[in-house]
Amino acid sequence: MTAAAPPDKSPRIASIDLLRGLIMVIMALDHVRDYFHAEAFKYDPMDLQKTSVVLFFTRWITHYCAPTFMFLAGVSAFLVSRKKTRMELSGFLFKRGLWLVILEFTIIRFAWKFNPDVQDLLLIVIWALGISMIALAALIWLPRKLILVFGLILVFGHNMLDNIHVAGEGAAAFLWAIVHEQHLFFVKGFPIMVVYPIVPWIGVMTLGYVFGGLYDSSFLPERRKKILTRLGLGAILLFVLLRWSNLYGDPNPWSAQPSAVFSVLSFLKVTKYPPSLLYLLMTLGPSILFLAVSENARGWPSRVLSVYGRVPMFYYILHIYWLHLLAFLAAPLCGHKSLDMIIGRGWLTTQPQLQGFGFSLGIVYLVWLFVVISLYPLCKAYDRYKKEHKDKRWLSYL
Question: C or N: which end of the chain has fewer Cβ atoms within 10 Å?
């Protein structure tokens, strides 16, 4: 018989809500750019031959979102473990992970397209989050040291798989793409794009789960802050050393460019699909350091950002629908029909009817601020509803 988990009346961790809220706000910038920037998808904003410094960093800053959110999801799983038995936690993670996968292919997919006629399938971030959560549901049964070793192997060792490729369109190639290689498949003419391979995302969430132990009541805040600071600075230093050496950690080495500024951009341009070791060190290091310095953060910016951090999935789904609707309304300003924003296969600028659509980067930033600010009242209301109805189990899935 499984012993009941001890009751947990500890408050939410304010610094975690703050960091999660910050990355959710930053994430919206990338999605607004997708829908509103005139150059979106015409070329990669990280392409050093075509980009500008401002555009590069507009994209680069959003790199922090996926790994930090995945990592904090693992931390949250540990915090939930203080309120549930291991069996209850495993069941919860499995069901929530499955629910996220379903959300990705239905409600979220429709938000991106506004097209009920499903003409392609994208395996993107919420899918990877769901699969990682399902994997964590099994991993929590292992001893914590083994969970830590497993996560470290995935995160630090997966770049050894970079040169492994499975040719063709068969089942083996598809399974390998799901594991470690971004790839587009056509199944009887139906496109399936594996955007987020699941390795090392499972490792990131797993390390987040182990990391969550730092927020156990047995840890004094001063001790935790020292550990967080050392981990964050250590990850940043390791990133700099490995990136400078070009020995390991990313399939694309950096190189000197015609100017010092673009040499720095080359140094910072690391691989996201799948996220390289250097990508994860570059993003998770500063995020962990942020947790160290923000533990006692106060003031209205912290309070506002924390609202988004307490309702992340609600905000995520809502912001896609809202910004797509805004793009729907803005299309006539570019000489296009609003109905042109109903997306078929591919993405915005691959639609023939949308050639020439888009606005300047300055407009993108203004729309981004409007989207984030305008969603605050709804997020605040939903956050209040969750606090007042903690007995409703379905709220833990949104």
Answer: N
> Measured between alpha carbons, how far is 236 from 284 in angstroms, rounded to an integer?
9
The residue assigned the tokens 């798989």 is 161
Tokens found for residue 305: 């950002």
Angle of helix 14-36 relative to helix 65-81, nearest 10 degrees, comes to 150
State the Cα–Cα distance between residues 114 and 341, nearest whole angstrom.
8
- Rounded-to-integer distance, Cα 87 and Cα 207, Å: 20
Cβ(242)–Cβ(107) under 8 Å? no
pTM check: above 0.90: yes
Is the distance from CB of 33 to CB of 323 less than 8 angstroms? no
Residue 341 clears pLDDT 90, i.e. is over it: no
Neighbours of 379 (CB within 10 A): 23
27 in Cβ contact with 62 (< 8 Å): yes
Burial class (CB in 10 A: 0-12, 13-18, 19+), 222: exposed
What are the pLDDT digits (tens) for 345-368? 666 556 656 677 889 999 999 999
Q: Identify any residues that bridge with 37 across adjacent strands, giving them in sequence order.
A: 359
**Residue environment code for 90-123, b if the CB has 16+ CB neighbours within 10 A, otherwise e:** bebbbebbebbbebbbeebbebbbeeeeeebbbb
The first and second tokens of residue 276, run together, are: 């390289």
Confirm if 158 and 199 have CB atoms less than 8 A apart: yes
Terminal Cα distance for the chain, rounded:
31
As a whole number of Å, the CA-based R_g of the chain is 21
d(CA 250, CA 253): 7
Rounded to the nearest 5 percent, the helix, strand and coil shares of the chain are: 65, 5, 30
Structure tokens at 14: 């304010």
Q: What are phi and psi of 137, to 5 degrees?
A: -60, -30
Query: How does pLDDT run across 166-180, given as a tens digit for each residue?
Result: 998 899 999 999 999
